[in-house]
Amino acid sequence: MTKEELKTYLEQTFPQNKVEETFDFPLLYADKSELFIIAKKLKESPETLFDFLFCETAVDRTPNLEMVYHLNSTTHRHDMVLKVVLEDRENPEIHSVNELWKAAELYENEIYDMFGIRFTGHPNLRRIMLGDEWPGFPLRKDYKDDINIVTL
Amino acid sequence: MTLTIQFSDITKWIHETLNASMSPGWALFSEFVLAGVAMILLVVVLAVLFVYMERKVAGFMQLRLGPHRVGPWGTMQVFADVFKLLLKESFAPFTVDKFLFNFAPILVLAVAFMAMAPISFAPGLQLWDMNIGILYVTAVSSIGVIGILMAGWSSNNKYSLLGAMRSGAQIVSYELSAGLSLVAVIAMCGSLSISDIIASQADGWWIFKGHLPIMFAFVVYVIAGTAETNRAPFDLAEAESELTAGYHTEFSGMQFGMFYLTEYINMAVISMVATTVFLGGWLPFHIYGFDAFNNVMNFIPSWIWFFGKTFFIIFLMMWFRWTFPRLRIDQLLKLEWKYLLPLSIINVVIVAFLVVMGWHF
Amino acid sequence: MENLNTELPKEMTEEFVVNIGPQHPSTHGVLRLQATLDGETIKDLLPHLGYIHRGIEKMCESLGYKQFIYLTSRMDYLSAHINNQACSLAIEKGLQVEVPARAKAIRILMAELQRLTSHELWWGSCAMDLGAVTPFFLAFRDRERILEIFEENTGNRLTMNYITPGGVMTDINSDFVTRLKTLLVKIKEHLKEYETLITGNIIFQRRLKGVGVLPKELAISLGCTGPTARASGLSCDVRKYYPYDGYEKLDFKEIVADGCDSWSRYVVRMEEMRQSIHIIEQIIDNIPEGEYRAKLKGIVKLPVGEYYQRVETARGELGVYIVSDGGNKPYRLKLRAPNFSNLGALKPITVGSKIGDLMASMATIDLVIPDIDR
Amino acid sequence: MRALIQYIKDVAQGFYSLSQGLLLTLKYFVRPWKHIVEQYPENRTTTIYIPEKFAGEVVLPHDENNRHKCTACTLCEMACPNGTIKIISATIEGEDGKKKKVLDKWVYNLGMCTMCGQCVDACPQDAITMKNSFELSVYNRNDLIKVLNKPGSKLKEKES
């Protein structure tokens, strides 16, 4: 499907969700609680078949955190973006998509490390880069570190 | 015709002078000391030559020059390295088994020296012409693996242990086919003594006599010998990309130097045995009926013949090392137990049949 | 033989943990693999990262759009040029700048040369991981000549800093075409030597065939890209599916093999080297004349929005995800590193095999550690 | 029987492949003149090849009258991603009595420079260039911080 077709498809299939588009891909907003169901549907329904999670990351849109899933289908060759807004900044938690895409195991480890978003159902959630004793989550906008960050 | 002094004359002269000046017991003792010192010097010089040769061969095969800064054409590089190793601290980690850790390199080196005893470098230049020479060499050189196992175990390091276990499995298995390929020649000439084996090749080296089983045995012996000395493509015991340095990971200074030296001495032993058994020892190359050519060959001193052949086999081993990738441990054992050993056994059976029927010459 | 260990009572067998890395000859960098071994057999593998984590994503948030490109050279330093290209393309996408045709051609030429150097280095180090040292020098001989061309034309050898949003920094030299042509002839000759020395070698083949099998479904699920995924039968060449900088006009084959093992990965990479040469040969004679750079403003500001650009580096798909808030710096920059995803494949393909196979798998996945850590 | 023939064929092929590799290494072994190494420290003044464009360090060229082109506009300082450049300007009184900003010190930290060429690119006066110098290592890290404008140098006014 092309970008426009996919966008209309998403609008029809998920009428209660907000559908937008970025510069490249159609964009679907999902609620935190229904993320896993929507992701599973996107992966398994024969029209979409999003079986390739090529980028999973988070963006700190102060005060919210935002999970961004870039999905691709290796059969239909179309892409889309799935976004989840997390309002709880102190203790953000979301269901892991590791069961659907195994790539998410490493991605989610990195997101946990950098943003502090906890993933329920993740098999081995650990701070993969920085180590357990590191204070704070560096990629958040309010992260302050006078020693390790040298500003110009 | 020959103007060269025979080595037996020199030894005889030493023997007589010593006996004339002191009691027979002291004379014998002095002879032992002299022989030991001479042997150690010879072996060390050889090892140094081999190290230099290996570096140059490796360099030339890899489009480089090899060592070329210390001394003319880098000849002093090896000495520089040895002095560096001598001056370095032989550091032992806190958790090692001190006695075994310090003993292992000495054992390995001593065993390598011992294996040189019955080898005949030239007519008369032989430390001990025992009647079971070949058996002695194979027996003694297999003690070396104990030293390697000791080194690996005492280091208290998982890489070392893995390397030592690999080395043990490898050396124990490859000794079988190395021994069996030697048996082929021994059966043909009917003696274990090294001087007898050389004498049996006076009318032609075993490898050129036209016996197919012997040629096969030579190939097997070179492969098994390469494996026995833990060299690439069989260098699993110290597989650099897998186990960093294998059984000598924790060794430093001269203790490491001993392991390093031992590798080359073992290579020397293997290639000297191959020279003696298959390539006619110190005998010159003759072509039957070509008297002029044979006379020219005779003119070349016998020790040059011996070391020339030795260096050729060592070059073969170096050539293998710098060309081939390494085998995996299961492939290594499979090659021995499923291919080389059965074929060697069949080979020995064929040789025995030939000998019994008297079809050999 | 395989069942020997299971028959023994449990007290007699003991698994032990070996740290392969951070300093280990065959991890090619500071990657730590915590391997649980049962004798020689790997039972479990857990990668520990972060030894060379520099926080490039965070650093990029405090740099301007023209400046942060050059930090990405330090990710996958073996395809530094292609990393820069990805960032430039993302910025050009946001600014809607048309890159001159000459710049596009030069970019492709350099990118394919970079792919060639990267694969050559991989070939040498792959052979070295498997115990053969000589190929490393043969590979470096040709790589050095290509690096010389980079040095002459861009000013640097490894991190070329050659691409800038809107084109390339400087024009190529006048003798570039002739030098490259003579070089390509030589490289093609030497590729044949590679084949005789290593590809045909029976020991090498036995070491790779059937080792480290990564099935296609698993490759998709793990998000593998590049030669690693293509050797598992997953067609994923970004140059074919999402062409950029004029790859759509070129004739080249996407190399896909379905052996799924290390040998297929080896074959795919070797064949990709030939394809790169083929691509270069198509462009080299008709580099368009004209500007090599579109003029941009001194300070670049991207419109508010999100931009995702992917390119095919030597190791897989590199994605640059820029979130812009309209300022002169990216609000958030995510670099989707190909090696980070490919690293995930290491555990499933090595568990149950020998240590020697781990080296073979790692060598053919071709991990570059700074790219994993970023 | 066919399996046996195949087996022998495989073994022969294996030996053939190994011998091909051996021949290749022997070929290089006996042809030392094909070797590729450079005798580096010896050839640093003779045969070493440093391309014209090679980016070794940033320089501020001065002409024969000890004049440079830098107007101390600090665009290069802003363009640098690493904070390598520090421009210290001074205000002097010109001949016509106007206050004028001129370059006092062009401080360049070679140790932090990644040779990205952004400063050269940003300079509107083409005052700075990359030079193909090499062997720039020093024993003291402070020696890497250089002042590029020579003492007493002046701004070169445009002819037009």
What does this entry look like structurally?
The complex is a heterotetramer of chains A (152), B (361), C (374) and D (160). Chain A contains three helices and seven strands. Chain A has helices at residues 3-13, 35-44, 104-115; strands at 19-21, 26-30, 52-61, 64-72, 79-86, 93-95, 118-120. In chain A, the strands form two sheets. Chain A has a five-stranded mixed beta sheet with strand order 1-2-5-4-3. The termini of chain A are far apart. In chain B, strand 1 (120-122) and strand 2 (125-126) form a beta hairpin. Chain B has 361 residues and is mostly helical. Chain B contains 14 helices and two strands, in the order H-H-H-H-E-E-H-H-H-H-H-H-H-H-H-H. The mean pLDDT of chain B is 82. In chain B, 44% of the residues are buried. Chain B is globular, with a radius of gyration of 21 Å. Chain B has one domain (87-357). Chain C has 374 residues and is of the alpha+beta class. A three-stranded antiparallel beta sheet of chain C has the order 1-2-3. A three-stranded antiparallel beta sheet of chain C has the order 6-7-8. The longest helix of chain C has 29 residues, at 101-129. Chain C is globular and about 70 Å long. Chain D is an alpha+beta fold and 160 residues long. Chain D has two domains: 2-36; 57-155, 2-Layer Sandwich (Alpha-Beta Plaits), CATH 3.30.70. Chain D is 26% helix and 21% strand. In chain D, a hairpin with a 5-residue loop joins strand 3 (85-93) and strand 4. The longest helix of chain D is centred in the N-terminal third of the chain and has 28 residues, at 2-29. The interface between A and C is large, with 35 and 39 residues.
* Model regions low in confidence, pLDDT < 50 over at least 5 residues of chain B: none
CATH topology of chain C: Cytochrome-c3 Hydrogenase, chain B
Mean pLDDT of chain C: 85
How confident overall, as mean pLDDT of chain B? Answer: 82
What's the gist of this structure?
Chain A has helices at about 5-15, 35-45, 105-115; strands at about 20, 25-30, 50-60, 65-70, 80-85, 95, 120.
Features:
heterotetramer; B: 361 residues; mainly alpha; two-stranded antiparallel sheet; 1% strand; C: 374 residues; alpha+beta; Cytochrome-c3 Hydrogenase, chain B; three-stranded antiparallel sheet; 8 strands; 13% strand
